[in-house]
Amino acid sequence: MALSNDSVAVTPGSGASIATQLVSTKEYQAVVTADSVGHLQGTKATWVVSTGNTAHVAAARTTLIDLFNATASGVVLRVVGCYVIPAQVAVTGVGLTYEVIRTTAVGTGGTTLTPQAFDLDSTALPAQVTCRLKPTGGATGTTVTLFLNGASEETFPYAAMASTLNHIPQTQELAAMKGLKIRANEGLKLDQTTNSNVGNVNVVLVFTVE
After folding, report:
1. Are the C-beta atoms of residues 6 and 16 closer than 8 Å to each other?
2. DSSP assigned state of 21
3. Partners of 111 in the β-ladder
């Protein structure tokens, strides 16, 4: 990530040089955009974590993945992508519902997942940022942030489109939205709320670090 490193006093005849670009005989100011906390656009470290294809569970509620940012991590996470992708395996599928829920405690048990950086030069994640597949404890939920509907039936159009369907709204009107902000001692999990073991699913979270 990078912060803007200078400011310009816009006073005729003084101040730092301002970059311009010639367009149709006129010079236009060239700008670099920054977000609400000052990071230049496109410079935040971005990470992805995936459950891989994992079986649905016949239970009233199952946490498929949790992401937690523990105290003293020194970073803030913003979850900007959430994908729920059914495996393309022939099954007699059923409709499924999921919930994205904020958490106040780290998940325990289950299988540790290792996020992967989009840019291999990114600073490593602090040890306090952890992810788990199907934690068996912890991951104490508070508020439901998103309700999602899916299906394990591979012939549904949803199954073919799911790998490109981001459940965190990214419409034109919300193009500059911040994502789901995860401060220290906060987390996020995705629960399967339909009692069914039909089919497998891959849950993918994409998040930035600041």
Report:
1. yes
2. E
3. 133
